[in-house]
Amino acid sequence: QVQLVESGGGLVQSGGSLRLSCAASGSIGRIYAMGWYRQPPGKQRDLVARIIGGGMTNYADYVKGRFAISRDNAKNTVYLQMNSLKPEDTAVYYCHVQMTSIGPEYWGQGTQVTVSS
Predict the structure, then answer these.
(1) pLDDT reading at 27 higher than 80
(2) 110/94 Cα distance (integer angstroms)
(3) pLDDT at 54 over 80
(4) Considering Cα of 97, then 99, then 102, then 105, what sign does the dihedral take?
């Protein structure tokens, strides 16, 4: 079993920055992919950014150029640096890890990010 602990959410003004962290612990070997999803109020959960293996990344179009994902494999931790935040970035952000290319996968409990205008 894998546990995920997220931190770094909060309230920020439009144009500000936040950095999310997610540390994985438990029965961990090598983690295939780590990423962040978000779920705005009343909407579905969608991919924000994902990093696979040593560094291949993919981002949702609406965060390209503003957000950056990185991971520290020694610490089993993934980060999401969020810059130039907009009110529409307000959502619960969920950490996601995938142990191999075919699973299993685990979710964090979510951290609230609120961007005020």
Answers:
(1) no
(2) 4
(3) no
(4) negative
